[in-house]
Amino acid sequence: xxxxxxxxxxxxxxxxxxxxxxxxxxxxxxxxxxxxxxxxxxxxxxxxxxxxxxxxxxxxxxxxxxxxxxxxxxxxxxxxxxxxxxxxxxxxxxxxxxxxxxxxxxxxxxxxxxxxxxxxxxxxxxxxxxxxxxxxxxxxxxxxxxxxxxxxxxxxxxxxxxxxxxxxxxxxxxxxxxxxxxxxxxxxxxxxxxxxxxxxxxxxxxxxxxxxxxxxxxxxxxxxxxxxxxxxxxxxxxxxxxxxxxxxxxxxxxxxxxxxxxxxxxxxxxxxxxxxxxxxxxxxxxxxxxxxxx
Length: 294
Hints:
This protein has 294 residues and is an alpha+beta fold. The chain is built from eleven helices and 21 strands.
C-alpha cells in the first residue's frame, strides 16, 4: 500500500524505521513513533481515554463539548475529527490518494484500499462462482457477483424505475434526479454526480492518459475506456442483445443497436407473414426463402 505521490525524501529527512513514513521535523517523527510503541501519554481528564498525540486528545474533547470545528466549504456538513473532514472533502474533489501497488486502482480512504487488497489480491477466497469459476472471500460478495450471470437487478429507482445490481449504484444514480453534483473540478468548477466522471473530465485539463494498451500502445484517460478498447484486440463481445441474441464489444454499440432495430418493433416477412422482434432475425429468416428459390 502506498500513498499517491510517495514521500519527498529531500524535504522529509526523518524516516520511521518501522514503516515508510518520513517527516520534515524530528519532533513529528518522535510523535509518530509513539503509534508503534503503544505509548499513549495524553489522557482525557473527563473520561480517562488516552492518546498517542496531544492533537488527537484535543479533537477527542470535542465529543464532550459538542463542538464540530471542521466545516466543509462545499456543503453543510461539519466534523469533530480532522481525519473525517479530510476524507469527506475528497468526495467533492475526487482526490484518491491511496493506490493499490498490484493493479493501480486508487481510493479515497486507506480502509477502502485495504479492503480492496484483501478481496482482490489475496488467495483466501474459498467461495467459487459456479458460472465462471471466479472466487470470493465472502458469501455476500459471491451472491452479489452472481447477479450478473442471473440478470438480477433487485434495486429499483423510485423516480424512474431503472434497476441496478448494487444498492450503491442506485444511490449514485438517484443524485441525477435530486440534482446533486458533489464532485467539483478544482480547475474550472464544473460539477459531476460521479467521482469517475470528474476524474475523466480532469484529464481534459491535465492531458493525462495513464492507461496504456499493451497490444497497440494507445493510451486512455480512463481504465474503462482501455477495457472497452481491448475488446477489439481480443474480439470479445460480452454485451448480448436479448431481442436477437446478437453480441457487441461495448455497451454503447449495444444500446444503439437496440434503439434502431430492437426497440419493440415488429418485422414481418413479405414471403410468409412470419413476424420477428428484430431486423437481424428477419434478415436471417429471409435467407431460408432465398435458398428455396434457387
